[in-house]
Every structure is written in structure tokens, then in C-alpha cells.
Amino acid sequence: MDALGELPPSRPTKKESVRDLLTIFSDTVKVKFTVKDDDNEVVAVQTLKGRWCLVCREDPKFAGSACRGAFKLGGNSSCRQHI
Ligand SMILES: [Zn+2]
To answer: Are strands 42-52 and 71-73 parallel, antiparallel or unpaired?
Structure first.
């Protein structure tokens, strides 16, 4: 079998393959989150790269400081699992 002759016809471009994700996720962005202790003192600032789940973000339970829960780290496949 000649592997070179078995190239897939036309792979979808990266932009196309995430198009369904973009209907409920934002583009990949960097967001700073502050980590607070029990006294509401900022103990650390994390810069995280990921996507907002636009659905969760509208959810009142992710309002304010809980918004970290609507921010999805990791690759497109983990976002897809979340759908
Ligand atoms: Zn969500």
C-alpha cells in the first residue's frame, strides 16, 4: 500500500473545524483571574488561555467571581465534550 497515495481528499481548515464550537464558545482568549482567600484578599493572579462558554456565561450561577466556571481551558475536544 502506498501511503502517499492515500492522502485524505481535502481536510477541513482549522477555522472550519471549530466553526460549530464558535456558536457557543468565544474565540480563544487570555483572561486574568484573581485568586482570593477566605478573607477576600487577592492571593494570586492567574492568566489563563481558553474559551468562554457563552451559554454558561449567561447563567446566573456563573456571575461575578464564579465566572471562572464558564471559562474552558484546553483544546477544542474538551470544549466539545462540554457541549
Ligand atoms: Zn457551558
So the answer is: antiparallel
Gyration radius (Cα) of the chain, Å: 18
How many H-runs (helices) and E-runs (strands) does the chain carry? Answer: 3, 3
Residue 56 scores a pLDDT above 80: yes
Question: What residue segments make up the domains of the chain, in order of their start?
Answer: 11-82
In the chain, pLDDT over 90 holds for what percent of residues? 48
Question: What cell numbers appear for 40 in the block?
Answer: 477576600
- Name the residues around ion ligand 1, CB cutoff 5 A: 53, 55-56
Q: What is the pTM of this model?
A: 0.68
Q: How far is the CA of 42 from the centre of ligand 1 (A)?
A: 26
